[in-house]
Amino acid sequence: MEDPKKLEEGFSNQKNNISEENIDTNRIDNNQDLVSHENDQKILSQPLQKKEEEEPIIKKGKRVATLDAFRGLTIVLMILVDDAGGAYACIDHSPWNGCTLADFVMPFFLFIVGVAIALALKRVPKVSAAIKKVTLRTLKLLFWGIILQGGYSHAPYDLAYGVDMKVIRWCGILQRIALVYLIVALIEILTTKLRPTTLTPGHFSIFTAYKWQWLGGFVAFVVYTTTIYGLYVPDWNFLVHDGDTSQRYTVKCGMRGHLGPACNAVGYVDRQVWGINHLYNQPVWARSKVCTLSYPETGPFRDDAPSWCRAPFEPEGLLSSISAIMSGTIGIHYGHVLIHFKGHGERLKQWISMGLGLLITAFILHFSDAIPLNKQLYSFSYVCFTAGNAGIVFSGLYILIDVLAMRIPFLWLEWIGMNAMLIFVMGAQGIFAGFINGWYFKNEDNNLVNWIQHHVFFDVWKSQRLGTLLYVIFAEITFWAVLAGILHRLGIYWKL
What we know:
InterPro entries: HGSNAT_cat
Pfam families: HGSNAT_cat (PF07786)
Radius of gyration: 23 Å
Oligomer: single chain
Domain Heparan-alpha-glucosaminide N-acetyltransferase catalytic: 63-203
Strand content: 5-15%
Number of domains: 1
Keywords: Membrane, Transmembrane, Transmembrane helix
Protein name: Heparan-alpha-glucosaminide N-acetyltransferase catalytic domain-containing protein
């Protein structure tokens, strides 16, 4: 297990090659900021240096409190929307255009990954070692992603494991994070020597200093935009299996630039690259008005529902993941600001102005119907809207935790953020609940988890919807917060 006093983003084992430093949140309210040691000043681009004692200061061996709290908040949101979204459709993923609470989870993850990369790679004395670490961590993320969301794990409801390789799902949450992490981190590593040693005066100096990172984000934008609007999508068909019978459906397309569910380039690319049998077979568009009378909840299909309502669609597919690189690019910019700017005011000015700019851009694109907000397509307006909100929330947490020193109310989020991978696997992916369900009496449904749900929450509150929400809050989120606090106290952390 790694020391919690070291930044965790995959590099803390390498003491001499890749140094990881975090903000001392106990002293940050005294206007102490980030700094490097004298022997590192030729490598790291820093703010204007008038006097050595005026440089921002960073204390080694401490974690970034806001970083952990934001990551913990994202894990909490994921558990809430995954396990209570079925009871409250208003917080579940939007069936197509629009943005709900659940739609913030993925971009928030990518945003904080970007922030953490900037801190973890502020100095890269040995490029080859850094690339090796990044590659190894990417492979670990891919491995766990396929195990947890590829169909191998059936937790928490089915006491079985294994997947037919003909239908394994290759994409997922961790796979998308792995791709974004790999691209953004490699750009950061390979451009270390191309950064200026000092920042020139001006609000936009931070952008020009890291122009290669922004160029990477722009390339992702160009690839995504040209493909989604320029790629021709032909007619396609799929099979739906129902017991021993199967029925083939055909979707008529023959068009370019379509942003609807049936004929978009995002789905076409995934069908061609992965194969239609390897896509997610329960897409959220099945809850849309044209598919079911139960909208926005899940229900039986309408008699006149279009054929694509029954088709698979990959929400974490290849083309949409290329677009997601922009979320990581914006996140790493926030990390660069944290490193280079002195004082709370300068950082917040940079963060909040960019967040508001992104939100304004998103509103214009969405409400003008130019580019609607769409998580499934990971549209550019969706990137701007979610990244803007991430920047505003991150700034808010920074003000509360680091500026106003209101750290105690957010300690539980920090604890969860410190053990994010453990809680993601055991909690959000249901591995721990699946383990508990394995100890049943007489039949598989007679287990501790179901007993607590029905007797402590459903029966007491006489409402399955309210009982589900309370169960998620108290039996899941509160449980994992307490456990994370205990593990933090014991110095136990699970890092990739």
